[in-house]
Amino acid sequence: MTSPENTSSFGRIVRGTGPGLLLAHGAGGGIDANYGPIMDGLAAHRTVVGPDFPGTGRTPRSDVPLTLDGLADGLVAAADEEGVDTFAVSGYSLGSAVAVRIAARHPERVTALVLTAGFARPNPRFRLAARLWRELLAEDDGHAKLAAYVSLIGMGAPALDAVPQDALDAALKQAAATIPPGTDDHVELAERVDVTADLAGIRVPTLVISTAYDTLVTPRLHRELADGIPGAEWAGLESGHLPFAERPGEWLELINAFLN
């Protein structure tokens, strides 16, 4: 039973049956955008709870600044409301830091972590990228520019080089039209995240998936995350920062193989 103080305001998708799997998506993304391409595979043998952060998907934008603790506790409360007592957590990008904080604040609930394209804290390069992201978003006509910028730094060079021009133009137009209203809130939080103090206390099996061609959250940051968690396993994925768009089948296989 969920007590009133632990009620989650996060809208969510719930799929499947079996052991629990809680999803934490990335900044400016959403459950459908970041996990939709692999949702069927994740839910084949698990109860998947995928909450949307405030300002994206099914969740209204927050009227106060986001906090890592608030996101972590909101996701756990969503699992509570769905009757899922224990769960693995799959975190992508900013969601990796959220997943680590969930494990730190609710260790009795978490059975495993899968952290993809993640970071424990931003470095100057990441902060520069985030600053440009927010500046473009603030411009009156910035959505088209932002879609191009995020595609340029988000997709790995091999994948982006192979996209036909007409397909790229269509994808950019779609991306510009669907930027979530809470994107600035998410990116602002990503600029100040720091879970380095949480890492050494993680005591559950952990897999860090490094997106090898990532120019937004670079493999150096993935390595810092893995090195800080005792016993963390490491897997490489030949993808940029968008594995759900570039290598969804391989990404799903890595997650399922580890959780199984």
UniProtKB/TrEMBL annotation:
Q: Which Pfam families match?
A: Abhydrolase_1
Q: Does the keyword Hydrolase apply?
A: yes
Question: Which GO terms of the molecular function aspect are on file?
Answer: hydrolase activity
Q: Which UniProt keywords apply?
A: Hydrolase
InterPro entries, per the entry = AB_hydrolase_1, AB_hydrolase_fold, Carboxylesterase_BioH
Q: Which domain of life is it from?
A: Bacteria
AB hydrolase-1 domain location, by residue? 21-248
Q: Where are the transmembrane segments?
A: none
Q: What's the protein called, per UniProt?
A: Alpha/beta fold hydrolase
Top-level taxonomy: Bacteria, Bacillati, Actinomycetota, Actinomycetes, Kitasatosporales
